């Protein structure tokens, strides 16, 4: 049975939320012996352009200041997205993050300029044999994984598990979870410029009247998606066992890592922070939670949301939780410790 710590808070003030998150971080610290390393990566989500319900940058100020006081240098760490947008490449991703206020500490995009830098983590589970994780994650023994719990059109919900699975995966790892097949070329958009051919390190693309991607040599790195100037190369969003693959990638991302998990059960929208438009929360804010077990943490967030609303919101995501239990990602059997934040 895993421990989950919960501080109720319904007002949504970012400064208060940050202080509550810090209270919970100190509790998690007391349950592990390892000291902070010289540098501490903080995994967050910067929000898509046009989104207004991602966790604001100033929420992280108390934790950043505290980490510095402990003699470690914090920095944000993220990966590029699979779809085309402001967060497709390192340069535009960092520019968007800065425009959203994430200016307090350095930013590292773990999978490089176009999302193709990765290392492999062998897991040999039901659907995934080896996870493609952003290359820079290999360099650090553990992460402070901070997540916004909300809905997701495909995953049911996004929380700590999805922050690990999609948030740590390189572009090719994201592609593998969504489909496990090669990208496709839209011939009506392709201008046969050859940029994708030059980008491909695996000779999987040839140029005829339009670009042609060959399944057998393609490793699914999805670098071609990032460099296509016309948006002619896309992923097929038709993969099977997506919910189970999320659990398996989260297992791979956290394998051998000493992680701490904090989730904000606030600004709970029907869809995720990747949506580039404002959304209205489904219910009032509920609070901040933390655990050493990402599966127990997501389970508690989902249970609290459904108890608060009397509605079975995001219930399809329980498939991911069940599969995560099966493969040893964590436990859905948890003790919920409800606490009072020092700042309240």
In short:
The chain has 344 residues and is α/β, with parallel strands linked by helices. It has helices spanning 14-29, 61-69, 90-99, 160-168, 171-178, 195-199, 223-227, 242-254, 294-309, 318-327, and strands at residues 2-8, 39-43, 73-78, 107-109, 118-122, 130-134, 144-148, 150-152, 156-158, 184-185, 205-207, 211-213, 233-234, 260-265, 287-291, 334-338.
The CATH class label of the largest domain is Alpha Beta
What is the radius of gyration computed over CA atoms, rounded to a whole number of angstroms? 20 Å
CATH structural architecture of the largest domain: 3-Layer(aba) Sandwich
Mean pLDDT: 92
Distance between the termini: 29 Å
Number of spatially distinct domains = 2
**By helix and strand content, what is the structural category?**
alpha/beta
Number of helices: 10
Oligomer type? single chain
Instruction: Indicate the low-confidence ranges by residue numbers.
Output: none
Instruction: List how many beta strands DSSP finds.
Output: 16
Sheet-strand content, in percent, reads: 15-25%
Strand order of the largest sheet: 4-3-2-7-14-15-1-16
- Please state the overall shape, judged from the principal axes of the Cα atoms: globular
Q: Per CATH, what is the topology of the largest domain?
A: Rossmann fold
Helix content: 25-40%
């Amino acid at each position: 049975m895993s421990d989950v710590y919960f501080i109720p808070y319904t007002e949504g003030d970012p400064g208060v939320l940050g202080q509550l998150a810090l209270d919970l971080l100190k509790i998690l610290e007391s349950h592990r012996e390892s000291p902070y390393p010289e540098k501490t990566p903080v995994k967050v989500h910067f929000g898509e352009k046009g989104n207004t319900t991602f966790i604001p940058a100033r929420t992280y100020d108390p934790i950043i200041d505290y980490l510095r006081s402990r003699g470690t240098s914090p920095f944000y760490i993220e990966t590029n997205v699979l779809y085309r947008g402001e967060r497709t490449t390192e340069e535009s991703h960092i520019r968007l993050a800065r425009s959203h206020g994430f200016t307090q500490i350095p930013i590292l995009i773990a999978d490089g300029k176009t999302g193709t830098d990765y290392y492999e983590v062998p897991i040999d589970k039901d659907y995934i044999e080896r996870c493609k994780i952003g290359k820079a994650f290999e360099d650090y023994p553990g992460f402070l994984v901070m997540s916004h719990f909300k809905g997701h059109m495909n995953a049911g919900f996004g929380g700590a598990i999805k922050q690990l699975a999609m948030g740590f995966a390189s572009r090719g790892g994201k592609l593998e979870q969504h489909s496990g097949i090669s990208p496709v070329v839209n011939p009506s958009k392709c201008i046969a410029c050859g940029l994708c051919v030059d980008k491909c390190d695996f000779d999987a693309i040839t140029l005829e009247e339009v670009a042609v991607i060959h399944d057998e040599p393609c490793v699914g790195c999805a670098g071609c998606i990032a460099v296509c100037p016309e948006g002619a190369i896309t992923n097929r969003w038709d993969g099977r066992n997506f919910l189970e693959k999320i659990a398996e990638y989260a297992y791979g991302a956290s394998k051998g890592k000493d992680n701490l998990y904090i989730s904000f059960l606030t600004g709970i929208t029907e869809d995720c922070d990747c949506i580039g438009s404002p959304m209205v929360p489904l219910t009032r804010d509920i609070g901040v939670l933390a655990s050493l077990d990402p599966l127990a943490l997501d389970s508690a967030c989902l249970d609290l949301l459904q108890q608060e609303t009397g509605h079975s919101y995001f219930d399809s995501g329980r498939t991911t939780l069940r599969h995560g239990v099966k493969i040893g990602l964590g436990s859905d059997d948890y003790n919920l410790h409800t606490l009072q934040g020092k700042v309240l």
